[in-house]
Structures are given as structure tokens and as C-alpha cells.
Amino acid sequence: MRRRFSAGRWGLALGLGFLWAPILLLAAYAFSADRIPFQWGGFSLRWFEALAANDRMLEAAWLSLRVAAGAATLAVLLGGMAGWALARFGPFRGRALFGALAGAPLVLPEVVTGLSLLLLFVAGQAALEAGLGWRVERGAVTVLLAHATLGLAYAAVLVQARLATLDRSLEEAAADLGAGPFTVFRTVTLPLIAPALAAGWLLAFTLSLDDVVLASFVSGPAGTTLPMLVFSALRVGVTPEVNALGVAFLALAGLAALLGWWALRRAALLTGEGRVEAPGRGD
Amino acid sequence: MRRAAVLLPPWLWLLFLVAAPVAVLVAIALAAPGDGVPPISSPIGWENGRPVWQGGEAWTVLAEEGWHLGAFGRSFRTASLSALLCLLLAYPMALGVARARPERRTGLLLLVMLPFWTGFLPRVGAWIGLLRDGGWVNGVLAGLGLVEAPLPLLYTEGALLLGMVHAYLPFAVLPLVAALVRMDPGLEEAAADLGASPFTAFRTVVLPLSLPGAAAGFLLVFIPAMGEVVIPELLGPPEARLVGRVLWDEFFRNRDWPLAAALAVLLLLVLIPPIRLFQRLEAR
User: Fold this and answer.
1) Which of B98, B117, B229 sits opposite A253 (nearest CB)?
2) What is the pLDDT of residues B225-255, one digit of tens each?
3) Which residues neighbour B262 within 8 Å (Cβ) at sequence distance 6 or greater?
4) In this complex, how many residue pairs, one in chain A and one in chain B, have their CB atoms less than 8 Å apart?
5) In B, which residues are within 8 Å of A103 by CB distance?
6) CATH code for the domain of B257
């Protein structure tokens, strides 16, 4: 092939350097003994120990993990249904509104989603108290509902996109061979969309674990999530503990990325697209 | 019937948790402020047995006190500048990814996306530690003998833009990669066969064809950046009163719910054209 304009290689290196430099510095200095963040005071694990002994932080982390897991599971179930409907049901009644509502959390600014959900929850609380005499507090559950709504939007997009590229003849073949609709779904469709479901779950999980704006709006006194705690710490100034926490996040994200990559690769192999090429070919 | 079973749960969820909240938001934006819990009162009052309209005060405040609207101007400027900087940095990156060998693309894309998953707050925190007066960057500059006194880097417009670009850069790369990978490489080769230099072929063929992807990337940064709260709060100058922060303060500090809701409704209205444009670009 002829030479092509290729400023891209240098641009990519520069961009990746910019993206990764602060993260790598953070990771390196998390192991520094110095009290001042980003000052080298010899290798030490003291900030990880401090983090492990910080009960408020651990409690918030445990709450955040539970909320994220619950929200991601709800998001995949509901988002899967929504994506399925959008990809397979043709022009059903109210499809335009359904699609717009499912996509809205993707494009609405967090402050708008957060404030509007909080106002709804306040109205809901008032209605429950007036109607049934129930007093409900906002907290982990309202955060979970907000995060599931955000995650639903992402899961729906992923599942819809996956179904759109799926070869329907596979399902038809199974049906021709006598499989009932449910068997076709369980043995053919579900394995094929499983990577999209897994990716949706992971995305919803990390979005929930990372969110501070929605949580700050909709949570109550008993529902301080980890990002809310970190945000209030950062407002005062950065501490070495936050850096140690960043490293923990990095390790978790790396693991999730490996899992996601593996899922995508498996999907590519299953459907035969993007076969693994022998190294050294191409170019 | 099976269709109904699949449709009903997401329909109900979306109506209750997406449509209804927006309706409540609009209603509260029209309500009158109050002293109770929640601090709002009905927009319709009663005087001598007759209903009187007393709501909509928030909108009068918005129109009369110009500084709320000024926040929209500042947000627009910051969001466009952030999106533009992201695009400038993202374009060569996307080109690099798109022109890499296909089996390497996934890995490279993962490298672009992974920072997005390493925790938003720790990343912003890293910038605080790096840019502080006694921080890492000033330490390096002083060590090299380039500065005598530490430069004021944190809590500036520059730190704000740096944080925004760092947080949103991956969003700008993705649609550009998609646009560049989709492109028929034969077009560029044809231009080269007809005697165009590599740069001319790029400028006259690849660049114009990638413009929709570039526009999508711009909007994918611009839309969330318009309402961004955390980065301006943690890295920006105190006087950078962007819409997100103003809304946040009206709600949490001043407990003026109708005004905060009115700001959210206004932000929503302002963002509808770019959102529609983005959806049209995506639907192509």
C-alpha cells in the first residue's frame, strides 16, 4: 500500500500519555510514605493500611458496592427488555416515546436527572405518607433506583445494537429443527447476546460506583456512598488515602476491562466476525 | 401476550423514573418558594375565595437577576472550549487507532477507554495534587530552576479546562474511530493514485468524510460539560459560576427549589437542539 498521512501514531502516543500520566503518577505516589500527596518519602504501604482501617470509608465502599450490584442487575434486566423491544418488536404503539425515554438518561446532564429524580422521590414520599401513613427515608434505595435508570439506558443501547447485528438465520435454523420459542431464546439468542448483557452490567456497575452527582441529590442521611465521601474529602484537599483508593479503583477497573475484553473476544469468535489473525500479518 | 410481558416492565419503569420526574421538575419550576419541608408552596393561592396565580416567581428572578443567565454564557464558553480541545487531541488519536492493525485496535481502544473507568474522583484528585502550589508540577518546575515561586495553577481557568479535557477525552475519540474505521480505504488510495500527496489525500478525502464523526464527538463532550458540577467545583476558580454549580448552590445552600428547578428546565431547553443534532448524527 502507498504511504498514508500518519500523524496519528504520534498523536495517539501523545494523547495516551496525557490520559495516563496523572493516573500513573497517582499510582506511583500512592506507595509513598510522605504525608503530602505526590511527595516521595520512601516506599510504604501505610496509606493502604490507613484506608483499610478507615471505617467510614469501608462502610461507604460496602454500601456503594451493594448499590452498584443491585442497580446493574436491574439495569440489565430492564435494559435487556427495552433493547429487545426496540430491536425486535417493529413499530409498536408508543415506540417513539419509549425509545426517547430509554435514551434520555444518556443525554441529560447529571444535575437535571439528579434534581428531577429527587423531586419525584420527595413527591412520592409525601404521597406515601399522606395515603398510607408510611414514612420512608431516602437513602441507598433511592440511589439504587437512580443508578438503575441510568444503567438501563446503556444496557438497552448495547442489547439493541447486538440484536441488530445478529444473524437471524441462526434462530430460524433452531426453530426449523423443532425448538420452541423459549428453547430458541435460551439456547441460541441468549448466549449470543450474553456479551452485550455482561458489558451492560459492568458498565452500569462502574457508572454507579463512580457517580457522585445523582447520589448527592437523591440520597438521604443514611445513604452516604463512597464517591460522596471522597467528594467531600477532595473539597477540603487531596489526601494520600484518596490516592490509595484510586489505586484500588484502578486495579478493579483493570480486572473489569480484562473480563469485558474476554467477553467481547468470545462473542467475536462465536459469531465468526473478526477471526483471530496470526501475528505478523497485515500492514 | 409475550410481547406485553417484555414491554410492560421497562414501560412502567421509564414512565415512573424518566417521564414523571421531568413532569415534577417542570411543576416545581412553576411553584412558589415556601418555608416548609419541602420548601415549596402551590403556585395557585386563594384570596377572598378566588384562585390567584402566585407561581413562576423563579422565572422572574432568572430574567431580572442577570447573573444566572450569565452562568449559562460561561458554561457555554467552557463547554465549547473543552469540546474543541478534546476534538483537537482526539482526532490524531482516533487516526492512530483506526490505522493500527485490526487486531491491535481493541487493545488501543481499551487503553483510551480504561482511564474513564479508573474512578472519576481519584483522577480529579490527582490533578489537585499535581497542580497545587506545593504540588508535583511546581516541584518539578522549581527543581529545574524554571520558577522561583510556585505558579498558581490550581483553581484557575486552565486547571478547569485541563480537568474537563482529561475527563471527557475518551468520549470524543470513540465516534471518530467509528467514522474512520467505517471509511472505505479505497477512496484514499484512489486520491493517491491520482497524484495527491498523503497530506492532500487526507485533507481532501478523509477529513471531510470524518466530519460527522467529529461533530458527534464534539457534542458527546459538549452536552455533559454544559451541566458539569464536580470539575469546576474542585479545579476551577471560585468565580467560575457555571450552570451546574449555580443550580447545585441554589438547591443545597439556598434551598430555593423552584429556582433550581427552573435552572434545570432552562438547561434542558438549551440542550435540546444539540441533543437532537447528536441523535440525528447517530441515526445516520
Assistant:
1) B117
2) 999 999 999 999 988 789 999 999 999 988 8
3) B29, B58, B59, B61, B62
4) 282
5) 279
6) 1.10.3720.10
